[in-house]
## 1
Amino acid sequence: MTASLVDRYVFTALRRVPEQQRADIDRELRASIDDAVDARVEAGESREAAIERALTELGDPDRLADSYAGRQNFLIGPELYGVWRRSLKLLFTMVLPVVVIVVAVIRLFADDVTVGSVIGAAISTLLTVGVHLAFWTTLAFWIVERTGAGKDDLNVPWTLARLPRYETGVRSRVELIANLLWPVLLIAALVLQQFTFTDEPVLDPANWSFWWPALIVLIALKGVWAVWVYRLGRWTRPVAVVNALLAVATAALLVSLLATDTFFNPEFGGFADAGADVRGWVSTAVIVAVVLSALWDIFDITRKVEQARKGVPAEVPGSGRSYTLI
């Protein structure tokens, strides 16, 4: 005997329900379907059409079974979704770049280093670590969602104090930490490449007589500038001027060393084995990157200062609206 449409629907739903609940849910679901069908038949529909409409309105039997069984049909629920998203964003913007840079620097100090191997190590680390960060973070939140352990600690009640401040020039603590982290990493990399990892440093050791200490000072001053902007709490023209001076001085120092072929150490294994053309291409690429980075930094800060000075409306990302930031 062929199962009816109602039987097929009910059997499909019961597959996902614990066995001890099936008899009760079978009776309840069939009664609900019969009531819906009878109401439609009384309204003038044919019985076959009424059955189809009633089952269509009930929807996917698997989802209906989950609701009967009290089973969650989502990975991360709305209570923890915001915390999960913020956690991933923090990991991807703060932790992942640091790990990639560290791996690339370590690879740069290997005996058989090449430009391709450094780029390959960076890309491989970016993908591998990124997947692990996303997987394990999501798994941890999934466990909390299902067990409830620690859920109250993560799901902190929202208050007005947590509203973002849309004020020109007010930098968050996260932005301040990021602006301080990069100078620390750059100075650490500059020092470590000279004294650790390999017998020959990557950068020309002759520059320790003046140029590398001067570069460290400029990098440290950029960190001081970031703290100054954070404490000042607004964009001003002196802020833009100091930033431009630091950007120009740093770029000029780097470009002069790269252009005169005194930036990289010719005795370093990766460059000693490569031809002069390869070193020249690498130096040219770094010059272009340095100049573009400096120009963008100057333009970006100057733009923010002028917007703050004129009270120009600034678009809040994702809102589609412009607000005058004060």
## 2
Amino acid sequence: MRILDCVSWITLVAASAACSAPQVVARSTPEAAPADAATVAADAASDGPAADVGAPTADVSAPAVDGGASAAVPPAAGVRTYLGRTEDDWLREMATRPVVRVMERFHSTLFVFRLDLGDGIEVSFQPERPGQESFWKREVTSYHLARLLGIEHRVPPTVGRRVPLSVFGRWARGVNLVSDRRGMVLGSASTWVPVLERAEMHRGPGRQEWVRWMNPANPIPEASRERARQVTEVLVFDYLAANYDRWNCCNIAVDEHNNLVFRDNDAGWAPNVINNIMSPEVIRRVPRYLYESIQRVTAADIRASLQSDPMAREMPLVSSSVWEGYEGRRQALLANLRRAIARHGEAAVIAWP
């Protein structure tokens, strides 16, 4: 019962929040296209030069795009990859490629657009809207946290960029997008995940199962070890970022290989939440790499990593008031893991390489 009670810090707000699911389930029933491709193209042309569609307005630290998709070459050992490309390649392409077309629009608590950048590169674009000015920035910050922690293949690469308002054509009707005086819309571009399905782990038997896995007194069935490892990764990831909107119908999802995908990460990094340091007691098992990275990754490391994002040159991506809360959560999590080790032994708590 004690373990179940400890889950409350994850679900306290999520229980009353609306599900935010731009890529799950809604994919089978996206909003109807507002017009045919020719009409959308005509709308875009009337609002701005077609040659400038999607072009970034700031330099990007990654190497310039050479006009075509990067060659598919085997990545070097230790290089982070996602869906067949290096993450650095994804970031460069997503930040610099012009938008070819809007493919779909999804809506729950947020609006998300599926954009085609050409050569098979598609992104999920979360735009800035009134009252949601910081949401896309939190997506970028969460990606950098996952990268620094060493969590691989779970969080889609995400970068900040501008997209011309004219690109959206009639897709923008009723969305109330925020654009600057140059007609550009700020937002986050994330690698499009082609398959996402509900994991059904937020309640009932699914929830009871992973809660048991997190108890060092219980053995983890061999067939469940990989899923249990992914669960502890998302628990650590969300706790440190203070992301409260995960364990509901739609935000804990799996890909075509039945691996968890941590997306829709915009609920983290809110100062009033992250600075309220609640107990992480449910997190009592972690992989060794994650235990070591929790000790290593400070707020200063995240701030430094964020400077590589092209939008960070123009604006802060997260409030400076969140860093004290992050550090408090990091230390609380380490203390909890050390208590678990003292009680159950290192092998039971550091349960994966």
